[in-house]
């Protein structure tokens, strides 16, 4: 089968948004190449594999590939005339574009390497990104310029570096899949209008946190685990990759529900995942695929950020299951 490519699809999008996506996709090609080279990545005997030996702003052990991926994104965006600034999981403060701070109409937010604790084990990782309007074009973007709810996104996407590298994009008119041809480095358009099935018998949650979960989640998971002799009267299957991109892509392709709820493990943090560069872009993509994305008590896309790195509870996926969980937040018994 002959496929058209990313350029052909971008040609039909709003030009400044297309330009941002083109540069983000170029960075993902470089990151994909570094991931696929594993322990042999890097030049002059300097491997880009392994831990940096430092803790990032999130309190996590930073991997060399976290840093490299962040640099790839920054390098690509610095060349993009439609982006005035960007914010990254790996950096405490936003970056003002060196060349386009006062001309760019958009802001980019990204998780340069999602699932990076998996990289040494050769498990799938990815990149998540979001494009927001710059509400004060002409002025250099400050941190306050990024404090916009996910509903304002003009585009979002992710790249998954798995057995194949795929790019999933939306500009608000449904979901597109592109697959990277590793020989030509071209993104070929492989699916359009992807819709997530509404019913599912597959859920994903880090069950080691069970003792910290809220009551609605305790109820939901215990009913799934009870299987065909429990109140759900059917058997469920469970998956946990610990790479959100891989979990979301599995849900895109065969349905399912993914939960990283609020828990009492670290009482000052409402959940594990970051609103700006994990929850919001994935929520946007979920809604574009006909699925749902909530905190338990509200739509994720309506959460207004207070700080760049704030965390949020995440419950996303097949609408029948997410709606059931919303019901359990209304009545946990
Ligand atoms: P990152 O590697 O960008 O810091 O994100 C990891 C996130 C997400 O991808 C995944 O779903 C979750 O952390 C895994 O959490 P556990 O360590 O609790 O499994
Ligand atoms: Mn991290
Ligand atoms: Mn992540
Ligand atoms: Mn990351």
Walk me through what this model shows.
It is a single chain. With about 325 residues, the chain is α+β, with helices and mostly antiparallel strands. It has helices spanning about 5-10, 15-35, 65-80, 215-225, 245-255, 275-290, 320-330, and strands spanning about 50-55, 60-65, 85-90, 95, 105-115, 125-135, 155-160, 165-170, 175-180, 185-190, 200-205, 235-240, 255-260, 275, 290-295, 310, 315. The longest helix has 23 residues, at about 15-35. The chain starts with 5 loop residues before the first helix and ends with a helix. The mean pLDDT is about 95. One manganese (II) ion binds near residues 89, 111, 113, 114 and 116.
Structure summary:
This protein has seven helices and 17 strands. It has 333 residues and is an alpha+beta fold.
Number of strands: 17
State Rg.
19 Å
Strand line-up of the largest beta sheet: 4-3-5-6-7-8-9-10
Category by helix and strand content: alpha+beta
Give the DSSP E fraction (strand runs of 2 or more residues): 15-25%
Shape category: globular
Bound heterogens, unique: 2,5-anhydro-1,6-di-O-phosphono-D-glucitol, manganese (II) ion
Q: With helices defined by DSSP (H or I, 4 residues minimum), what is the helix count?
A: 7
Enzyme class: hydrolase
Pathway: Carbohydrate biosynthesis
Binding site for Mg(2+) 2: 111, 114, 278
Family: Belongs to the FBPase class 1 family.
Task: Please name the defining characteristics of this protein.
alpha+beta; 8-stranded mixed sheet; binds 2,5-anhydro-1,6-di-O-phosphono-D-glucitol; binds manganese (II) ion; Fructose-1,6-bisphosphatase class 1; FBPase_class-1; metal-binding
């Amino acid at each position: 089968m002959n496929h058209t490519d990313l350029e052909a699809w971008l040609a039909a999008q709003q030009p400044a948004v297309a330009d941002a996506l083109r540069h983000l996709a170029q960075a993902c090609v470089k990151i994909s190449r570094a991931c696929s080279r594993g322990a042999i990545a890097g030049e002059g005997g300097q491997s880009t594999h392994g831990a940096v030996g430092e803790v990032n702003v999130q309190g996590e052990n930073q991997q060399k590939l976290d840093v490299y991926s962040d640099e790839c994104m920054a390098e690509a965006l610095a060349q993009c005339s439609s982006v005035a600034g960007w914010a990254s999981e790996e950096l405490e403060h936003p970056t003002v574009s060196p060349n386009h701070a006062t001309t760019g109409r958009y802001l980019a937010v990204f998780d340069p390497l999602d699932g990076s604790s998996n990289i040494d084990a050769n498990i799938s990782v990815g990149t998540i990104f979001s494009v927001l309007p710059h509400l004060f074009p002409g002025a250099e973007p400050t941190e306050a310029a990024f404090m916009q709810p996910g509903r304002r996104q003009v585009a979002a996407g992710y790249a998954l570096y798995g057995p194949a590298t795929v790019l999933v994009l939306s500009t608000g008119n449904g979901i597109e899949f592109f697959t990277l041809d590793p020989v030509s480095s071209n993104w070929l358009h492989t699916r359009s209008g992807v819709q997530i099935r509404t019913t599912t018998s597959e859920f994903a949650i880090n069950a080691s946190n069970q003792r910290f979960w809220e009551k609605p989640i305790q109820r939901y998971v215990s009913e799934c685990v009870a299987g065909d002799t429990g109140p759900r009267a059917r058997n469920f299957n469970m998956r946990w990759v610990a790479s959100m991109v891989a979990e979301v892509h599995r849900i895109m392709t065969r349905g399912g529900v993914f939960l990283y709820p609020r828990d009492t493990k670290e009482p000052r943090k409402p959940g594990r995942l970051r609103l700006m560069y994990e929850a919001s872009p994935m929520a946007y993509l979920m809604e574009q695929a006909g699925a749902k994305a909530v905190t338990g008590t509200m739509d994720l896309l309506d959460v207004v950020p207070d700080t760049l790195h704030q965390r949020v509870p995440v419950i996303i996926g097949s609408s029948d299951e997410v709606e059931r969980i919303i019901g359990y937040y209304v009545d946990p018994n």
